[in-house]
Amino acid sequence: MLCSKMEGALNSQINAEYYSSYLYLSMAAYFDSINLLGMANWMRVQAQEEMVHVMKFFDFVAERSGRVTLTSIDGPPTDWASPVAAFEAALTHERHISSLINKLVDLALAESDHATNNFLQWFVAEQVEEEATADGIVQQLRLVKDAPGGLFLLDRELSQRTFVPPAATP
Length: 170
Ligand code: FEO
Description:
The chain is an all-alpha fold and 170 residues long. 74% of the residues lie in helices and 0% in strands. The chain has one domain (4-70, 82-158): Ferritin, core subunit, four-helix bundle (Ferritin, Up-down Bundle), CATH 1.20.1260.10. It contains five helices and no strands. 32% of the residues are buried. The model has no long low-confidence stretch (mean pLDDT 96). The structure holds MU-OXO-diiron (FEO). MU-OXO-diiron is lined by residues 17, 20, 50, 53, 94, 97, 130.
């Protein structure tokens, strides 16, 4: 059974993960609009992954006899100054999500809620990967900044990303 404080915090995280999905879908639309379809694909897959995160929290709250309460999702930005600006915003966002996950862990420990702490460890590891991936793309975009050929190659590389369905995730 979740304490009401933990239940509220997990519900807030459901909203934050939904917002993440919405943000990345907005970035996908941006990349579509400037014909960088590989980057648009990468963002679409990212948006789908965020929905997996939403459902992990949703299912966990339900499993612990908590009550999921959905709230309004803020509108994301719709435009960015450049491809690198969009990926920098993605990296900044992932760092923010990592800090939210860390606060959830702090709360779980303060409440001696070991089950929630254990559940959250998946997200702790996931955030390391999320930040590293976004950071890697930012670094590559900075390198190819003035070379359209490099941008084209990176776009082609990012077109290869595919969504791995939840059943196949550990
Ligand atoms: Fe759900 Fe990208 O963190």
